[in-house]
Amino acid sequence: MRTTTDGAIGVAHSDAPRPGAIVLMSPTIFERVWGPAERRRLAKRLDVIGTPGADLGRYTPEQLASAQFLITGWGAPPLDGLPAMPNLKLVLHAAGSVRSLATPEFWRRGIPVVSAIEENTRPTAEFASAEIVYALKRGWHAAARLRRTRDWDASLPSSGIVGSTVGLVSLGRVGRLVAARLASIGGIRILAFDPYSDAVPGVEFVDLNRLFEESDVVSLHTPITPETVGLVGEAQLRSLKEGATLINTSRGAIIDEAALVRTLRARPDLFAALDVTESEPLAPDSALYDLENVILTPHIAGSSGRELHALAHAVMDQYDLHRRGALVRSVGADDRPIAVRLAPTAG
């Protein structure tokens, strides 16, 4: 069993040969995703060549040719056709989307990619769902008013959860999980804007303007594309209901930030809970820091801490399925799941 020069991967305590693998990702992120238990699991199954890093140029032609598996994550460079790795069978991506990872040249080789996108989606959906429920209780409104007035009677402006309306902008993986969680609570009318989504039970599809006009809470789950930059502008923001809350856990550029500042200044009854901003970190002189009706968090909705370890286990679970000759949950260029079966690998 080969080990890294600094012991970063660990020893499998077995003399049986293991398939070769290269870890192509930021060493710092590797340490965060692959904790001690996850590294031990990796070392029992694969012979990791060298040490984690984001540059394949560090490897000799012989090392590249011997690798059957590539382990990637955040900080990995885009994958081209990888002609230097002729024996590559499977990519294990211990992160979310593969859209920015695999190029058309890579996909043409037909090498399956396993992603932890489902596991990476869950924390964001949980975070957004919690913020939505808190916003429906108007928790931030109450806290701000109590701090300002010291009047406990005036600190309870909530109209409650039952009978409220929540608008979800986009129903991708996160949006659908959020919709399911809200539906399980009961008593919430769920609106959605997504021109590309199929029907979802319990969700009423409306246009973007109507969604903003009728929702007590609007939660954004839109991917960033040229079409979605500035999707939420001044017209939508100004149309929000009295006391409404806007939540963004997707990407900051979805909102026209200047219009958001103007609206929040003009409408102190509104609240914005922003986990993402147009630039990250947010400029020190941004007005968003000083507005009383803004809650900022530093992009923490996604996987963090021990949640990251679930990503490593997710891809190793798929490797174990492959090793047994079972179907593997691969993904395509659009991150949609594809079931594949490869010739099993010993080890």
Can you characterise this structure?
The chain is α/β, with parallel strands linked by helices. It folds into 2 domains: 20-111 and 305-340, NAD(P)-binding Rossmann-like Domain (Rossmann fold), CATH 3.40.50; 121-296, NAD(P)-binding Rossmann-like Domain (Rossmann fold). Helices cover 31% and strands 16% of the residues. The strands form 2 sheets. It has a 7-stranded mixed sheet. Helix 7 links the parallel strand 6 (165-169) and strand 7. Helix 5 (117-136) packs across helix 7 (173-185).
Average pLDDT taken over every residue:
92
Low-confidence parts: 1-7
Bulk shape: elongated
Beta percentage is 15-25%
Tell me the span between the first and last alpha carbons: 11 Å
State the CATH topology of the largest domain.
Answer: Rossmann fold
- Category from helices, strands and their pairing: alpha/beta
CATH architectural name of the largest domain = 3-Layer(aba) Sandwich
- What is the domain tally? 2
SS elements, strand count: 14
Q: Strands of the biggest beta sheet: in what spatial order?
A: 2-1-3-4-5-13-14
Order of helices and strands: EHHEHEEHEHHEHEEHEHEHEEHEE
The radius of gyration is 23 Å
Q: What is the overall number of helices?
A: 11
Largest sheet: 7 strands, mixed
CATH homologous superfamily identity of the largest domain: NAD(P)-binding Rossmann-like Domain
CATH class of the largest domain: Alpha Beta
Helix content: 25-40%
Quick structural overview:
31% of the residues lie in helices and 16% in strands.
Itemize the secondary structure elements and their pairings.
Layout: E1 20-24, H1 27-33, H2 36-45, E2 47-48, H3 61-66, E3 67-72, E4 90-93, H4 104-108, E5 113-115, H5 117-136, H6 139-149, E6 165-169, H7 173-185, E7 189-193, E8 203-205, H8 208-214, E9 217-220, H9 234-238, E10 245-248, H10 257-266, E11 271-274, E12 294-296, H11 309-323, E13 328-331, E14 337-340
Parallel strand pairs: 1-2, 1-3, 3-4, 4-5, 6-7, 6-9, 7-8, 9-10, 10-11, 11-12
Antiparallel strand pairs: 5-13, 13-14
Helix pairs in contact: 5-7
